[in-house]
Amino acid sequence: MFKGILIEGTRGDQQVSLQSIDESGLPEGDVTVDVSFSTLNYKDALAITGKSPIVKQYPMVPGIDFAGTVSSSDHADFQAGDPVVLNGWGVGEKHWGGLAEKARVSGDWLIPLPEAFSPKQAMAIGTAGYTAMLCVMALEKHDVTPESGEILVTGATGGVGSIAVAVLAKLGYSVTAVTGRPEEADYLKSLGAANILDRAELSAPGKPLTRETWAGAIDVAGGQVLANVCAGMKYRGVVAACGLAAGMDFPSTVAPFILRGVTLCGVDSVMAPKQERLEAWKRLSEDLDTALLDSMITEVPFDNVIEAASQLLDGQVRGRIVVPVAQ
Q1: What is the pLDDT of residues 104-136, one digit of tens each?
Q2: Is the same domain home to 23 and 145?
Q3: Are both 158 and 93 inside the same structural domain?
Q4: What gap in Å lies between CA 239 and CA 84, rounded to an integer?
Q5: Phi/psi at 36 (5° precision)
Q6: Engineering a disulfide at 256: which of 150, 203, 208, 262 sits with its beta carbon 3.0 to 4.6 angstroms away?
Q7: Structurally, how many domains does the chain consist of?
């Protein structure tokens, strides 16, 4: 038996509880992991609360991230005792995830825990930080340099935004952090933000084109926010879009893309190829100041995760929620 959060029932009529689960219930996979730390991400909160159809089959253990130690393996790349990390691949949605003391997955989904990080630090980074680095890499791929100009980061107090601000600042970029929580300005400046912008300035319907302001942007919001971000990009500016916290719609025009040559890059972390994952984690070990991680962490006991899910969706949590799973 092992302890885990289990979502049971059906879509629209689900029940969520922390309970003891028989190990025989673990799904198919060639690697079993003793989970030491997991996280609570926005997607996990949606799954736990049922506010979005994240869960594709029931019962489901949520948790799109975990770090732990291999307990048994039939996969050539891993053996018992190996420290590993998992991000994405549909765990917590279609396959039991990391908010449990044990996980069984395909070894193809795992990467070795980078030597630079402890399991707790790896989960302080988690999918959010790994996604942030994929966004930074997308900007670099399109030749956005510190000399290009200001970089905008939306949702800056969240997990992706916080780590994006910290990484970009360390790389020498001047960062404008967007937040709807002005009381967090000191926190964002401690991560390296040069300027703070009220989210309200990007939330209302705007013009197809506005003053050329940003050379690059990392957007977690989507919706009207993303439309306004694109409208304010400099000539040949680049937007890396990785989230939809403000909606899936995109009420924009082609003007930014045709008249200013703006590039909109979609960044997906769930199914990204393994080589890109390894590169992103390597870059995180080089370009993220681990001393800043502590200021980003809210540690939530395993017993309080279900309650914390609602708090996360209500915007009451900043940075990353880390969950110590091993008892």
Answers
A1: 999 999 999 999 999 999 999 999 999 999 999
A2: no
A3: no
A4: 32
A5: -105, -40
A6: 262
A7: 2
